[in-house]
Amino acid sequence: MKTLFILNDGPYGTERSYNGLRLARALGKLDGETVRVFLMGDAVACAKAGQKVPEGYYNAGDMVRMVGGEVALCGTCMDARGYADEDVVPNARRSTLKELADWTAAADKVLVF
Fold first, then answer.
1. Whether this model's pTM surpasses 0.90
2. Which residues, including other chains, have CB under 8 Å from residue 104's CB and lie 6 or more apart?
3. Which of 27, 68, 71, 105 is deepest in the core (most CB within 10 A)?
4. What residues contact residue 3 under an 8 Å CB cut-off, 6+ apart?
5. Could you tell me where the DSSP H helices lie in the chain?
6. In this predicted model, what pLDDT tens digit does every residue of 8-33 receive, in sequence order?
7. Measured distance CA(32)–CA(59) in Å, rounded
8. Mapping DSSP to helix (H, G, I), strand (E, B) and coil, where does residue 10 land?
């Protein structure tokens, strides 16, 4: 099964992206599952490298690195927020709306957070 997660909310302030990343990671560990995550809008900040959070608090950047599948960021959303390619964690990369459309067409399930 191929599942696409589309995250829109920033990494902190709500738990929508946090829960989406948690589910993507858990699903990606199951046999026969392929997971892709597309970060757009404020969710591109989830993949920001060098996040420093209080002790005991989750680090969205670490969660993105541990997804276990492809992670892509909306390039337009990155530009609007001042993020360069080198600002994102390993396992994440700049992408396009065209690639999101291709991923959506190829997915068996699409989950939007």
1. yes
2. 4, 110
3. 71
4. 24, 27, 33, 34, 35, 36, 107, 108, 109, 110, 111
5. 16-28, 60-65, 75-80, 97-106
6. 999 999 999 999 999 999 999 999 99
7. 28
8. coil
